[in-house]
## 1
Amino acid sequence: MPSMAITPRTSIDEIITNHPDKAPILLRYRLPKAGRGEAEQAEAWTTSASVEGAARSYGMSDADVARLIGELNGLSHRDADVDDKRRIRLLAFLKSETDIQFLQHGKRYIVDSGSVDWFRQNVKCQYACPVHTDVPGYIALIADGKYEDAYQLNRQANILPGILGRVCSHPCETACRACDVDGAISICRLKRSAADHRGEWKRTKKEPWRPEKVAIIGAGPAGLGAANDLALMGYGVTIHDKYHVPGGTLWSGIPEFRLPRDLVTAEVENIQDLGVDVKLNVEVGKDVTVDELRQQYDAVIVATGCMGPSKLRIPGEELDGMYYGIELMEEVNFTYRLKKMGRKVVVIGGGYTAMDCSRSAVRMGADEVWIVYRRSRAEMPVDEEERGETEREGVKFEYLVAPLELIGDPNGRIRGMRCVRTELGAPDARGRRSPVPIPGSEFVIECDTVVAAAGQFSINDFLPSDVQVAEREGRVLIDPRTYATTASGVFACGDFTTGPATVIEAIAHGRKAAVQVNRFLQGDRPRFRERAEFKLIHAMASPEDYLDAPLTTDMTEWTGTTMSRRLEWGDDYDVHGRTQNPMIHVPLRLTDFKREVETGFTRTLAYKEAKRCYQCQLNIIIDGQMCILCNACVDVCPMRIIEMVPLERIASLDGRTDIAALAREDLGQYGAAMVIDESTCIRCGLCVKRCPTGCLTMSHFTATGDPASLWNEPRKELAFA
């Protein structure tokens, strides 16, 4: 039979029948989820419909699929290799009548033509944010000096900007493209700046206009997130909370030196202004039952958090001087005292609760405070800044140490903790290396107070009998798509369903639950179809030129003038490193539990940091018809990310492995492709300026109707008044 091009959709039977010599190549590529044995691998391949089907079912990477297809079509193992470390977008196919002298050779690429989702992922910070906050947008507004607008843009997505600007886990910064160049943009602290410097603002007042009512149990981040969105959708929302103040763990779990209480009150009042009623000192299950709420409301959302402390399960846990992290933080946050605390405190755990407990103990007068963590420093879930500030305040860290027993004195008081040193063993099912005790390494830490901050669980004894709970984990069972429990009209979200998470993750969960409650009450509706808009960014010779060409898009002036600043007027955005977070000196911190440690950016520092933002919603676009193959853009690029490559270096385009061959047929022997690696593009615009024909432009990307915005109501109903 004549040879044929093999693609991912070619059936396995066809490959084995028509090309039996290719079968060994299939077996050389292992399917990660198919088992370790050769027989299991062979069965997985032969029972799959196609290469694409096998890859999807058994977890094969796109890069390995491209390598496999290359070998199946006759490439050597070396020539079939793929560079999967870069993020390559096709700029244009190029046609030439003669040999192109500037072609760059090397490994093949997996290439994307530039889908809406691709451009969304280009804005890595926004994509990484659980609520997809428009990070470049609000940073641009700060650079423009429009702090109130920056605050409101934040609030549309993350609900509590002033709070999150202080305590957010900021996954956006981990994703920030500047990490690979000169340090992430201080996105979190700029969020705080938007709140700190906004000055006078208009309060948004709304009243419910729908007949349906929703009860929310819990006034923490998840409950507030759900309440905010449901109120904007027109529902009457009532939150019930057991504490005497709203905010849940924002008040009970985070110390005041990190989060001022007047700020929590103000942010909650913004939500109450939307018509949300907050009933305090109401413990559901005691003062009112869930079934009673079901009779009074059309839907109920349970968002009570993860408030049960995990036990150490070691001898001596019943001794006096034993605290649990949640218990300690509640006591110190509500009373500014720690009745059971002695002079020498050991905190067990490596998360944010452990840091807060240890720093609180220092402020409450402890002479010595240790944090004991059974893994290494690298495995600690807290960020380096938080850990560093804890160390600077005098807390000592003991890594690779696990508790064995609490030792008591004759009066039943803790007098020490027996520990064992550990080493990291083999990775567990999640890929995390488990600590293994080292024989003969036991030792004792003298202490009179031990705080267990090593885990929490959900308390669900107030739920009605028709709400099912997982026997092993003890968490309520919900439909992950609809957030519905097994009881009709009862939904659940936040840490109550996920286990301990972050404030921003809880808010995202609450907002998603609000959408599903709306669909439950109103009936499912067609979702927004994702679309995108691209607006050209001009580079004008002087700021005055913009007076004759005003911006007509919804982008900020700062974004619209990006190319002009960087190419014509001068801009040192890529010179300054990350701005340090201002803090008060350690001696001043420890004398006042209420004094905020971080002072925040001044307007000058906020501007300096905001201008560092690359504005990653800007993207290079090329008109291939105008390209003269001069290679000037490749030469001028400071990051060396633009390439002119042979067509054969395209291993796949949008998942299709036959594009290179098809393009070769269409473009002839001298055809080529212009590609860009967008993982480290700094949006300097030099390629745009250098291009002699003007075929390169910079465009502003906006996703419209994006499901990530979580709204499924007309925009006019949700806009801030």
## 2
Amino acid sequence: MSNLISREVELGTMTQTGTITYTGNEVVGKTITATMKDTNNDKGSWKWYVSDTDCGANGGTVAPLAESTEWKQLASGYSPTVDSTTSTLTLSEDMWKHYIKAEFVPNNEIGYGGESIQGVDQQYVRKIYNESIKIESSTKDGNGAAAAYSGTKITATIENWSEEALTGRLKAYINENTPVELSGATISGETLTVTLSSLSAQDGKNVYTELAVPNNSNLYVDESLKPITSGTKYKSDRIPYRYGIPISTADDLEKFMLAESPFTNRSTDVYYIVTNNINMSKKNQISYSSIPFSGTLDGDYHTIVGTKNPFFVELGGTESKHASIKNFVFYNAEVNVIQTGVDYMSSGSVISNIGYLTDFENMMLVDSNLSSAWDTGYLIGQARGGLKVKNVCTAGGTLSTNPEKLGPSLGGLFGYITNGMSASLNTIENVFSLNTKKTATKKLGNSGGLFGGTNSQTSIKNTYVATSLYTNANTYGPFMGTATNVTLSNVFYDNSIITGSFNSSLKGTGMPTSNIIGDNLIEKFGTADWVYSDGLYPRLKWSENHPLAIMYTTTRGAFTSVDGKTTNTEMFNGDISGTIKVPEELQKNSYSYKSSNESVLKVTDGGTIIPVGTGNATITITYTEPDETIGGSASNTYDFTVKQTVKALASVSVSGTTNPGQKLTATASGASTYQWYKRKSGSTQRVAVPGAISSTYTL
């Protein structure tokens, strides 16, 4: 038998050793890690603290001592919390500008004691600086890009605003080479606004805003977590400024035509600029001023719709400084000029009754009905010498003259060109005229695709016409009737459209449509001012993407066969034997389609054309301007002959719910095969869904 004797002995505690170091980025949203170095124990608890006071306005206040009472313990946001040589803290927004402290408290239950280990991170918490400038203009140019004019309101908004005051930091300027601060700018919160005045010396220069980093930039880092350099400045996007007296509304344009204030100046030095698209369709015919206009009218590529009278009675500058009309799109004009006491003053056009010593550049005039009692043309009724026309196109519409006596002329650009006001050379370069009807109530003196005739020295270069002629005239031809002192260079007419004989002494070169479309003229016209696409007539580069330019230059050769039963040659000639489709460029929501005979050609809303009966039919494609502030529409036509029909379903219906995962069911009387399609947003173009060839389709 033995006795077990027990005895408790209290062992001494071991003192915790080590120091705390920090790694990571002291930046809001990032993490820092506290690590114990040279430690003899990792059993214990981690605690984290944030300083009660911050580093001051510019980071000049140092961190509190580790032993001070100026620390607040954090309840969360870090891990691990126990038994580790490291602990990581995620820095939150409320820690910005404050200091951080970590503490490791040893677990004395396992024999470690002494004071805890504390370490202060001497770098205060900073924030990522990512302010940026969004600059906007209350006005746009005719292409939809931001543009600035006199009276334009510029708004600059600071995105990701730091809430540091912007006064003195955000400023608006014009002219990057020699910056001029814009006066009158105001700042409210994160936004600067300024309304531009008339700045004649700054035409063509850029408006922009500049933002300086806050004065306390040392409280921030950039997005790469690098320090922000004091005084760093950032520029916004640029908005081009165009000088000129602004014409912004239909009322403005009416006053301009009347030469009323503030549009009374008609001298060679005056510069007017159109700053918005303008719809004149609600205005009555205006008794426009008879004061000659000698200055510049710049449309900045805006569109004018629905005018009912020419802009001017007389348009012309001087030999040393021409008048100038440029950068415009006109359509749906309805002009009728009646007989006055002087024949040439009864001429009609969109721009002026008579004109001389004037430059026309970058203009598109389409789908207008122009009538007068004398010479009629899209630009000027009677031109009187010294004209320069470059990068201009006309298309569609009707030009007519209803004279009280014989003798007037009709032409796509001008009715007639005389040398009555100037013997200077007239130059016409990079011009085309398409599909414009010409009529008259009496026999004309002259008729042509560009102008009725001329006795003024004229040069025509890089030009084509594909438009109807009015042949009840003393002289007529593809470009002009009577021609005196006219030279031609790379001038072509479409003899698939302009057929027969002409009595003009100067005809240009006739070629079939197939030899004009696509890139067939690229070696003649070059690429500086022209663009080329398969199945389309050449387009002028400045307006290549305009819906009207695309529609009017599109030929049947751009249509495509759906079922492969119509060859490219047959398509081009208008002979179809299967289902076809309008060109992809015209498959947009702003285009609509109509058949002249649904018993021969059926056409769907998406532009699919189905030959259901033999015979002839015309497909009309209409562009309707989606911007209601502009309004207006224009159409082009395409004639087809059906050689072979296909069976069209009498009716097709689709049932089901158009939600993801739901099933759609097609019901089509007489259908044996199916194909489901999807449509691109903003377009009528349909794309076949691969494998979707049954009567049902699951979205």
